[in-house]
Amino acid sequence: MSMSSILRYTYILTFSLLLFGCPYQLFAQSNTDTTAADTTEAEVKLPEATSHQLAFSFDATQPFINSASSIREGYEFAIDYYLHKELYLVLEGGWGSAHVNYTDLAYSSKNSYYAIGINRCLISRLTPNDWDMAFMGVRLAAAPIERTAGTYTVVDSFWGSSSGTIAPKNFVGVWAEITGGIRLEVVKGFCVGWNIRGKFMLDGKSFKDLPPTYIAGYGKGDKGSVFDFNLYLTYAIRWKRQHPLSK
Amino acid sequence: MTRGDKRVITALLLLISVVWVACTQTRQPCAQPKTVYVNAGCYHVVADTNKVAIVADTLLPNPLVGVIDTAGKGALFYYGQRNRSQFSMFLNPNSDTCRWFINADSTFTPTSFDTLTFVYQSKLQFLSNACGYTYFYNLLGVSTTHNHIDSIILENTNVTSNVNVEHLKIYIHPNF
Question: Cys-Cys crosslink for A153: which of A3, A104, A184, B78, Cβ 3.0 to 4.6 Å?
Fold first, then answer.
């Protein structure tokens, strides 16, 4: 190899190192500048050590309750995505129906529901791949509800009973939830967990006139606040988080 | 299997059983009254000085209280309950008027009975899925005869499932 070739390759190597190292230099410079401006912010900007996680959950108690109840049927699902700093974005949904056929009251209803909220994990990770969690969260939910015409009888042994019909009604129920629970990874990607929920109806006026005995996602429609329990089976998919440093 | 495991399994089975029983109930029991009442109290004026009346409860010594329905037949609901001043009366949801009689001392003379006539509007009211529907009422007026009753005052016109409201004050004649 001639001297000119050595110089040529040295030049290419040096230029390449400068070229590929430039973004890092710029990033490092940027960080340095930020650090100079605000030391605390630089600490917060440490890269997330965990991967991305998207989890799909199915409430396993619902088929169990459906089989036991002759009045109601419902299915509930949840999807959560890990944002950062132990915060999870949660989307929930489901559908259900109720068929009431008492001697003094009869009607049917059906609804779907949609909820959005966040979960905050309350325990520290043992490792970046530790996805076990004890959490608390909040939700805001809405459900379009369809109720058929209802028939009623007011039983009065002295004056005599009277019967009538209540007109069908379509309306939207809106409620807020506070929830807490636990989720444990039993096999890689497969988790089990439970939630307890306190639910508070926000628009009670819509429910004054024959509210459905069961609203999927909420529970008893004639209660302004309800307590609920879910047992979730979850499958989580994960993929690596792309850090700016790794570019 | 350890003893602890057996306890956990037993507790889980008990929990599942409780949930199962709760879920298989076709209807929750109704835990509130379905019949609503007009609550009345009996009073008399013990002194009336400087235009300020002093009022006290009146215990009717041996009251008879019952309903006179529109078909002309009656039914007795208070009998043999001595020294009573509070009465609960129910209204006919299939009509807009209803009559009750009050006899303060169970002496069966025509002048010992008083008739209360209630005029009202019925309102269908949903209680819960467990209880179904009932009727609430809006009292438009109450009139009375004046044998033993001196006067009546309608204190509250809304007849609902609230049992703590006194709707009607019945003032017994001072000479009784």
Answer: A104
| Residue appearing with tokens 């000119």 | A4
pLDDT band at B44 (very low <50, low <70, confident <90, very high): confident
d(CA A135, CA A142): 23
B132 contacts A104? CB cut-off 8 A: yes
Planar angle of CA A33, A35, A41, nearest 5 degrees: 125
User: A164 to chain B nearest CA, in Å?
Assistant: 10
Q: Are A87 and B43 in contact (CB under 8 A)?
A: no
Q: Where are the domains of chain B?
A: 38-172
Q: How many CB atoms lie within 10 A of CB A79?
A: 14
- The complex's ipTM works out to 0.74
Q: Which residues of chain B make contact with A221, given a CB cutoff of 8 A?
A: 129
What number of CA atoms fall less than 13 Å from residue A22's CA on the CB side?
A: 6
Does residue A21 have a pLDDT over 80? no
Q: State the greatest distance between any 2 C-alpha atoms of chain A, in Å, as a whole number.
A: 119
- The per-residue pLDDT for B24 is 54
The whole-number pLDDT of residue A22 equals 38
Angle at A58 between CA A55 and CA A60, to 5 degrees: 140
- Closest CA relative to residue B60, chosen from B101, B105, B108, B107: B105
Residue in A65, A100, A105 to test binding to B, most B beta-carbons within 10 Å: A105
Q: pTM, whole model, 2 decimals?
A: 0.71
Q: How many CB atoms lie under 10 A from the CB of residue B70?
A: 12
Tell me the backbone φ, ψ of residue A213, rounded to 5 degrees: -70, -25
For the segment B100-118, what is each residue's pLDDT rounded down to a tens digit? 988 887 776 767 788 999 9
**Closest alpha carbon within chain B to A107:** B129
Q: Which residues of B touch A160 (CB under 8 A)?
A: 94
What domains are defined for chain A? Answer: 3-44 (no CATH), 52-239 (2.40.160.20)
Residue A239 has which token pair?
Answer: 């993929």
Question: What φ, ψ does residue B85 adopt, rounded to 5°?
Answer: -120, -15
Which pair of structure tokens corresponds to residue B89?
Answer: 């009366």
Single-letter code of the amino acid located at B145: T
Contact A211 B129 (CB under 8 A): yes
Would you call B129 and A159 a contact, using CB atoms and an 8 Å cutoff? no
Q: A183: which strand partners?
A: A133, A193
Phi first, then psi: give them for residue B38, nearest 5 degrees: -90, 115
